[in-house]
Write a structure and sequence with these properties.
The complex is a heterodimer of chains A (about 200) and B (about 210).
Chain A lengths: L6 E3 L6 E3 L8 E3 L6 E4 L4 H21 L3 E5 L2 E5 L1 H10 L3 H30 L7 H12 L4 H16 L3 E4 L1 H19 L2 H6 L7
Helix pairs in contact in A: 1-3, 1-6, 2-3, 3-4
Chain B lengths: L12 E3 L6 E3 L25 H21 L3 E5 L2 E5 L1 H10 L3 H30 L6 H14 L5 H12 L6 E5 L1 H19 L3 H11 L1
Helix pairs in contact in B: 1-3, 1-6, 2-3, 3-4, 3-6
The chains are: A alpha+beta (about 200), B mainly alpha (about 210).
């Protein structure tokens, strides 16, 4: 009896549920603890792929242009994300520099590029090489993408510096702002169940 | 059998943490090497050694929290004078100069959130170890919030990175990162890891045994 419909277990309380299809734009929640079991997402693959590609383009602009400049009596100092990392490294804060580099540059880049790597072939009905391992890695690395926190860090530093000199926002700052929404959109539009079901295994 | 109260573990099914596939738990097989047949992730009935690992990380974070608050997080050199600031003295400085929003953001992200995270995780662990059946739904919800909020503690580290990059030689002041920055970053990372190794399902396991 139990095996007639695919079963799904809640990740937060382990309660078993029958995985019924949910209507558009709605969420299946755990009966017992209220955790989200899954959501219905329209055109998940297409939207996520589009978001990831847009994100990659924005990412490149963000990292090649200064996002803030400081002006004081004719002196101008500009900064990109990388220059901040370099400065920390030069001050001997190697571990800290590495942490900032990973969470604000490396992890987001791998996440976006990896999404395109997995989703583009799937869109063309092909199976990307090492798909399960890659997608699992992407799920891990996503948790260490802290770009939205970095954005708040930029705002905090702008206010901190505003008393000492003129702070001039750069193009990358606006790109950054859009990129955060695009990255959130990439996560929100992705339905991992679709990806895993492409592997063909059905529930036992 | 009433399906409404059956857990995967009771049905001898392991829930894949990555792809949600349920696979059979075999007593004969050593659990350490169980792998999801679909996506290849390691699967367990419960996260391995969750309580001990979470405690270890909480204790480590609590230890690092002390130097993070004692040592200076920034050195500001201005006109030959070096001024060092701790997290708290930074907050006080912003309050005194009337920059309330900034003071509030840093106080919340750098002091309140890490402390609350440690307290909440400790509370959840203790309640599990005492097999408490007190409001498991709320306790699960508490964990969910704790897990989501932790990352925002990094905000001051990022702000510091930017300030350090902008205020360099030539300006009236230069800023250097202090030793507390490293300890503080360690606290944030370790508490994030603690939330990852914690298994919220353990909260409900106590309920199971009581219902029987």
């Amino acid at each position: 009896m139990v095996k007639t419909m695919p079963l799904i277990a809640c990740h937060e309380c382990d309660l078993l549920h029958r995985a019924r299809p949910v209507p558009e734009e709605s969420i299946a929640k755990c009966r017992r603890c209220g955790a989200v079991l899954y959501r219905h997402k329209r055109n998940s693959l297409d939207i996520t792929l589009a978001m990831a590609i847009a994100g990659l383009i924005l990412f490149i602009i963000c990292n090649t242009h200064p996002f803030l400049a400081l002006k004081q009596e004719g002196l101008i100092q500009e900064t990109t994300i990388i220059t901040g990392v370099k400065e920390l490294y030069n001050q001997g804060m190697h571990a800290l520099a590495l942490l900032v580099l990973i969470t604000s540059v490396v992890a987001p880049l791998i996440h976006l590029a990896g999404m395109v790597y997995v989703l583009l072939p799937l869109k063309l009905n092909r199976m990307p090489w090492k798909m399960p391992a890659t997608f699992r890695f992407l799920q891990t690395i996503q948790q260490w993408t802290l770009m939205e926190v970095f954005m708040l860090g930029i705002l905090v530093s702008m206010v901190k510096l505003s008393k000492t000199a003129t702070v001039v926002p750069g193009i990358a700052l606006y790109c950054f702002l859009v990129l955060i929404f695009v990255m959130a959109g990439t996560t929100a539009s992705l339905d991992p169940r679709i990806i895993w079901e492409k592997l063909g295994h059905t529930h036992e | 059998m009433n399906n409404l109260s059956l857990t995967a573990a009771k049905a001898a099914l392991m829930n894949c943490p990555r792809c949600d596939l349920l696979s059979k738990y075999k007593h004969s097989q050593p659990i350490k090497h169980a792998v999801c047949p679909r996506c290849g992730a390691a699967v367990h009935l419960r996260k391995p050694n969750s309580i001990n690992r979470t405690w270890a990380l909480i204790i480590a974070a609590a230890i690092f929290y002390i130097p993070a608050n004692i040592f200076p997080i920034t050195f500001v050199t201005s006109l030959g004078k070096v001024q060092s600031d701790t997290i708290i003295s930074g907050v006080i400085y912003f309050i005194n100069t009337g920059m309330w929003p900034i003071a509030l953001v840093i106080f919340t992200a750098s002091i309140v959130v890490p402390l609350l995270k440690l307290l909440v995780l400790s509370f959840l662990l203790v309640s599990i170890q005492r097999k408490s059946s007190w409001r498991p739904g709320d306790r699960t919800h508490l964990f969910r919030i704790t897990e989501a909020v932790g990352r925002w503690s990094m905000v001051d580290i990022y702000a510091l990175t930017i300030v350090v990059a902008l205020l360099k030689l030539g300006f009236f002041a230069t800023v250097e990162a202090g030793p507390a920055a490293v300890y503080f970053a360690a606290v944030v990372v370790i508490t994030m890891l603690a939330a990852k190794v914690f298994d919220p399902r353990l909260t409900w396991d106590a309920m199971e045994s009581e219902n029987e």
